[in-house]
Amino acid sequence: MVRERPSPWRSNPRRDGPQIARIILVAAVSWQICVLIGATQPPVFAVLVPLVCLRDDAFSVFNLSIARLVGVVAGLLIAIGVLQLLQPDTLAIAVVLALALLAGMVLRVGNVINNQVAISALLVFSSPDASGYAVARLWETGIGTATTLVLAPLLFPANPFMQARAELQDVTRGLVAALRSSTALTGRPGNDAAEQSILLGIIDQLVGLQTTLQLLAKQLAADRKSARWTVLRRSAMHAAADLETTRCLASRLATHLENFAEEVTTFGGHPQFTSDPTLQPAHLARLVEPLQTSLTAALSGQPFMADLNRARTAIEDYRAEDHSSVPSVIRRPLHRMVEDLEQVTHSVPGSSIQLPAG
Predict the structure, then answer these.
(1) For residue 39, how many other CB atoms are within 10 A of its CB?
(2) I need a labelling partner for 168 at 20 to 30 A (CA). Which of 97, 240, 292, 346 fits?
(3) Would the pLDDT of 190 be above 60?
(4) Is the pLDDT of residue 157 over 80?
(5) How remote is the C-alpha of 253 from its chain's centroid?
(6) Rg of the chain's alpha carbons, rounded to an integer?
(7) Longest Cα separation, the chain
(8) What percent of the chain has pLDDT over 90?
């Protein structure tokens, strides 16, 4: 069976810990600045900015912080204006909410309504001194926004590609497990219900790995954008290109493995499936063992030319033998995996994908 992917809870502290530390640091600095300026009340609103705006994507800090500040100003102006005309009752709440949501449609954050306008406008009703509340809310938010904009590029990220590397490692383990499991079922009667269930499970997990790789492509694009805004990690932009190359290779290998599992499923009931010696696991091991070693090394940035040569020799020996058409069809996806790995050795010096260290 394909091994289950590690629980995400194991990687949460490593992934979220630095983000929590950044939020605490920026919030503390914002609070202290407000105190030094002369805040008479606890400047909670300055702390809310990094809490809401700091995200895994450093570029989003600029979008969200500015959008938050604009939303605060717009919301306060709407609330103060309505309260000049109406008493703070149900009608005033409805009017303020309607105007704030309409303003949020104009002051959008990407494709999403800027709800900060409505939130800021409604919070005015929580204070008996609306004007005093509005002023405090406005300048504290401004201090928090400015502090976040200044410190975020210096604090984020410690390593923007740590999670991407971890996900690629998980994908690699999944691909190796799928290769082993599907190969173990060749040369055996494939019409058994249990074996069919295992093969379908392998295919489903390979589809899941492809989904992970598709999401990873978006993450790498965001990381590439983030790196342009992080003063201490601009060199990390090169890492995005290296990881994207590896991701594309993993996606192609996953496609071939899925095709292999489907062929094993399709031809499991064919007489040649069990009678041809080239489909016996012992014979396939001459190809599969160096192939899985090459796959693991390639997706980990390690040299794999020697193992790939062994896999290529196994293919050449197979083609020189007298065999039927069914094994040729079943084995073709494995041969294509070797061909894809060979293309990498031709295009990248050193016969390995150069993944960034860390």
Answers:
(1) 18
(2) 346
(3) no
(4) no
(5) 19
(6) 29
(7) 93
(8) 27
Average pLDDT on 56-71 reads 66
What is the overall mean pLDDT for the chain? 80
Instruction: Please tell me the total number of residues recorded for the chain in this structure.
Output: 358
Please state, in angstroms and rounded to a whole number, the distance separating the CA atoms of residues 222 and 237. Answer: 11
Q: What is the 3-state secondary structure (H, E, C) of the chain?
A: CCCCCCCHHHHHHHHHHHHHHHHHHHHHHHHHHHHHHCCCCCCHHHHHHHHHHCCCCHHHHHHHHHHHHHHHHHHHHHHHHHHHHCCCCHHHHHHHHHHHHHHHHHCCECCECCCHHHHHHHHHHHCCCHHHHHHHHHHHHHHHHHHHHHHHHHHCCCCCCHHHHHHHHHHHHHHHHHHHHHHHCCCCCCCCHHHHHHHHHHHHHHHHHHHHHHHHHHHHHHHHHHHCCCHHHHHHHHHHHHHHHHHHHHHHHHHHHHHHHHHHHHCCCCHHHHHCHHHCHHHHHHHHHHHHHHHHHHHCCCCCHHHHHHHHHHHHHHHHCCCCHHHHHHHHHHHHHHHHHHHHHHHCHHHCCCCCCC
Domain with CATH 1.20.58.220 in the chain: 162-351
> What's the CA gap between 315 and 334, in Å, rounded?
9
CA distance 267 to 77: 71
**Cβ pair 52, 80 in contact under 8 A:** no
Closest residue by Cα to residue 210 from 259, 144, 266: 259
CATH of domain 162-351: 1.20.58.220
Residue 226: which pLDDT band, with cuts at 50, 70 and 90?
A: low
Q: Which residue carries 């489907």 as its tokens?
A: 262
